[in-house]
Amino acid sequence: MENELREIFLKRQQLDVSRQPRRSRSYSQLVQSASLRKLEHPYSSQFFKPTPESPPEGLPARPPSHYCYRITSIGSLAKSTGSLRIKKTETDARNWELLKEASGRPRSWVRLSKLATGKLRGWRGFTWWTPSTLEIEDLITSAYQLGINNENIPKRGAILRCPVDHLLRNRLVTVPTIIEGFDQLIFMATKDSDKPAMGVTIDINTKTFSFGVGEVCLAAVPVAEIECLPVHIFEREKEPDKYREELLKPLGSYYDQQLRPGH
Amino acid sequence: MTNNFVQGTESNSRPTGYALLAALRKAPSRELWRFLLFDLLSGEQELESYLGHIESYEEIIMQVYDAYDGANPEKPQKSEDYFNIELEDIVRGWRPKETKPERYFDAMLRLISAFTPPSGFHRILGQMEQYGKFNLAEDDPEEQRKLTELALTALQNYYLTHPAKNAVDPAFKAYVRFLRLKLKDQELSPHACRRLIELTLLEVDAEEVAETLRQHPEELLTDLLRAFLVDHTSLMRDGIPKLFVLCLKESLKDARLFLESARKFGASLEALPFDASEEEFETPALVTAAGDRVDLYLPADNMEIMITLSELMKEDLRPKAVVKLEALMSSRT
């Protein structure tokens, strides 16, 4: 498995720098930092230090939708915001109950400011979102379209949505760069030369992976601008071949294919 | 297996990280669970990275046992049972007074809080009673505060409510004794007050609560209003009016803080505290986010409270109501 990860890292270095040459200097520094730390790849370590104030580096994105969406675990939601109803030091079970209670019956979107305070920040200072509508009835397929492997599809989670208007007005939405994607095992760099309106995911639904849906990075967003909907996903509903280990081979082949001329 | 393993003296080659998770999903055993718990506590690199995505020990563990138990409902041996046995074993062998890195204590306390293994309660309570903190390899007051909060939350999860009245429960008695002692603690008194009120062992208008309100108004009000409006809504109708009166008695600042804290949880003071047509002073109320109206029974003959209320309404509510209230007050004097 380590060998496969190392090979993927080598392929990714070629692919990433050829697609976003403007960032090759910062990227090389990251590669060097991995090598100094004797890491053969950045996919199994906390490569970056938590930097809550560091915004994403990409160009402004132009999502063609009313909302951007994100799938998150309840634990991540509690840790990425200030405590109010849901708290960082509470258990997932309790935080999850509070989210469900706030969402009511039948479930409806609830403003995150009812549950938490401050801004939603990822541990690196940004979070990953998609302008593509998530299928609530078939969330697993939607997650695979976003390139999320089974381990990262939460059992107790939430779908978040945030109006694109707010994101554009406040310049909070950017095209993901190879810097943000550096430690992401499943990541497709867009070409700078295409001047893309947003990033793109790798759809892992099929055996040979394919071009996925839109993807953007968001800087810290005020909780008042975010709505959330609780979701519960059973492990047995997930595809057995979508665990991380099983994805390494098809992922390697996909990166190979992208490295061929014409892509 | 002995607890030596937990101390990190075992060096057998074995699966780690994602491979360990895969092994547990396919064929769980007590040994594999022990490996996983050990790795979570010691911060094994791959699991740490995974935690960075999913952010929760609970989520990792539940995903793993659900994968097997959900796929094999007919099997009498549940992966979840193996996990619970191993967690209990590890917690029983844990010596909380030992010096460890912050992440170790964080992981241990979160595991105990989420899964409440029987030994966890005594381990944490003993440490908190005797030392009041954990011995961090690198002392950091902020981290120490977080660990204390995690420890208090874990203890709370063993006794969310008062156990059956007639049950003899020495652990509960020890917990109550601990909380009563902490009523006088500089930092922990808001938590102790709130917990004793939740367990119906302390009245909201008790002197201990008033004293804590003087020392830590913001923490106490946020904690208590969260309890009344979110966690223990059965205490709302009795607790909220008493707390509001207590605040009015103490100071205008506290009354204002009460309303600010209530607003954070979606509740606000009803804006019409008198009936204009009848020219009668009506009972003010706090209206919750869910639309419940909690009457705030005020002792109308207590002039100080009425003055504080009128001051409060000058800022917050309709001027007419204030004029009426002031007229009412002057007619009484």
Explain what you see.
The complex is a heterodimer of chains A (263) and B (333). By secondary structure, chain A is α+β, with helices and mostly antiparallel strands. Chain A has one domain. Helices cover 30% and strands 19% of the residues of chain A. Chain A is built from seven helices and twelve strands. In chain A, the strands form four sheets. A four-stranded antiparallel sheet of chain A has the order 1-7-12-3. In chain A, strands 6, 8, 9 and 10 form a four-stranded antiparallel sheet that branches. Chain A is globular. Chain A starts with a helix and ends with a helix. The mean pLDDT of chain A is 94. By secondary structure, chain B is mostly helical. Chain B has a domain at 1-123. Helices cover 63% and strands 4% of the residues of chain B. Chain B has 16 helices and five strands. Chain B has helices spanning 17-26, 30-42, 45-54, 57-71, 79-92, 102-115, 118-130, 141-158, 170-182, 189-198, 207-215, 217-231, 236-250, 252-264, 303-316, 319-332, and strands at 268-269, 274-275, 280-281, 285-287, 293-295. In chain B, the strands form two sheets. A three-stranded antiparallel sheet of chain B has the order 1-4-5, covered by helices on one side. In chain B, strand 2 (274-275) and strand 3 (280-281) form a beta hairpin. The longest helix of chain B has 18 residues, at 141-158. In chain B, 40% of the residues are buried. At the A-B interface, helix 3 and helix 4 of A face helix 1, helix 3, helix 4, helix 6 and helix 8 of B.
